[in-house]
Design a protein that fits this description.
By secondary structure, the chain is mainly β. It has three helices and 26 strands. The strands form five sheets. A seven-stranded mixed sheet has the order 12-24-23-14-21-20-19, with no helix packed on it. Strands 1-11-10-7-3-4 form a six-stranded antiparallel sheet. Strand 17 and strand 18 form a beta hairpin. The two termini are about 45 Å apart. About 35% of the residues are buried.
Length: about 400
């Protein structure tokens, strides 16, 4: 299986096994399963199966924490359970392992009945300490497995909190009784009281070519906000510090609908788009100087995300020299209920006036966001690189 694919599974006993390379790193991993209701929240404390609670009600899930395996029987799951999320987290106190980039290989295998599925995850460069491997989900009375391989920053506590459960830190081992001594040793310092579990990250800075997936909420996406802003020093203003004669930095997108229709939304040519009908993307105004503190914004009507296949976000300098370093441009992608994704234009060009910033792709109903930050001489060259197939003529605003 590959990320985003799904397949039906048996409702009988299924065995989940996680395999990692190198094996010496395996003790640092914890296998966790979250039993979620229709709202995407755990059904209660019993709905979080982990090293501190290794079985679910009615024997629906039995976890073998030491072997990174579990037995799951979908037919035994409570009727309130609509999804079972399968996740890994790193215990950073074991073996010096901090991120999944320290594993050369990782895979999930599920067997049972006529089910025999395997999903390999590409871990090189993965800086997260928690990983959503996949999920069982109920669709039209049929249980299926969806492969995900989605990193989650922050570890087990924020991952659990994301699904509606707060957990305490792993308790320290019981100390051995002290050996007899001739003299009374000085008292040991008091152990610090564990603080509350941290919240899920509210902001993620994307790395180039390392996509992040925003999972589709049960109620679907609402409005997705894509904002371009640029600064000079500590004060928001036009490029090179002025609000008069400033360079016109424009935000836009090339997009493809699920039916194959393609279009460009941008101020150049006056195609500002539409939210309530195709293309379901709209550009809000055009900041000619960089003086507007809100920058420029594209909105995507998330309720129609299923009708979109991909959206390529770009920016170009309509007037002025192509000095991207002076712009300090930043694009943010915000979907309600998800972390803010930040794409910094931290690589620069002084000869090419157009930047392909990020690609948003429909990933089994979720939004897969990939940072690009590739520079081109114009629209036509971007089109050729990403295969939209437009015919280009010179335009003006």
């Amino acid at each position: 299986m590959q990320s985003g694919q799904n397949a039906p599974v048996s409702t009988g006993a299924l065995t989940l096994t996680v395999t990692v390379e190198p094996q010496t790193n395996a003790p640092s991993l914890d296998l966790n399963l979250f039993m979620l209701d229709a709202a995407g929240r755990v059904i209660g404390d019993e709905g979080f199966v982990f090293y501190g609670n290794t079985s679910a009600p009615n024997g629906a899930i039995e976890l073998n924490a030491a072997e990174l395996s579990a037995r799951c029987e979908p037919a035994r799951l409570p009727t309130s359970v609509q999804r079972v999320v399968i996740a890994l987290s790193i215990d950073t106190d074991v073996a010096g392992i901090r991120t999944f980039s320290q594993f050369s290989g990782l895979s999930l295998q599920i067997v049972g009945g006529e089910t025999d599925l395997r999903f390999a995850i590409n871990t090189p460069g993965m800086q997260e300490s928690a990983l959503i491997l996949g999920e069982f989900y109920l669709r039209n009375g049929v249980w299926k497995l969806r492969a995900l391989g989605q990193g989650f920053a922050g570890g087990l506590a924020p991952l659990a909190s994301h699904y509606g459960v707060e957990i305490a830190d792993r308790p320290p081992p019981t100390p051995a009784p002290p050996k007899p001594a001739a003299a009374k040793p000085p008292p040991a310092p008091a152990a610090p009281t564990p603080g509350p579990a941290s919240n899920p990250p509210s902001r993620i800075n994307l790395e180039k070519r390392k996509p992040i997936s925003l999972e589709k909420p049960t109620q679907g996406f609402e409005e997705v906000n894509i904002n371009l802003n640029w600064t000079s020093g500590q004060q928001k203003r036009g490029i090179f510090g002025g609000t008069k004669g400033g360079i016109d930095l424009d935000l836009g997108c090339m997009l493809e609908l699920a039916n194959g229709q393609k279009t460009v939304v941008q101020a150049l040519g006056g195609n500002f788009g539409d939210l309530d009908r195709a293309p379901f993307v709209k550009l809000l105004g055009d900041d000619r100087t960089g003086a507007a503190t809100a920058g420029e914004t594209l909105l995507i009507n998330g309720r129609h995300w299923n009708q979109l296949r991909r959206v390529l976000i770009f920016a170009f300098i309509y007037e002025g020299a192509a000095n991207w370093a002076a712009a300090n441009a930043v694009v943010t992608v915000v979907a309600p209920g998800s972390p803010q994704l930040v794409v910094s234009l931290d690589e620069h060009s002084k000869s090419k006036g157009m930047c392909a910033i990020a690609m948003l792709e429909n990933d089994a109903g979720g939004i897969r966001v990939t940072k690009l930050v590739d520079y081109f001489s114009g629209h036509k060259q971007v089109d050729e690189a990403f295969g939209f197939g437009f015919e280009w003529v010179r335009g003006s605003k």
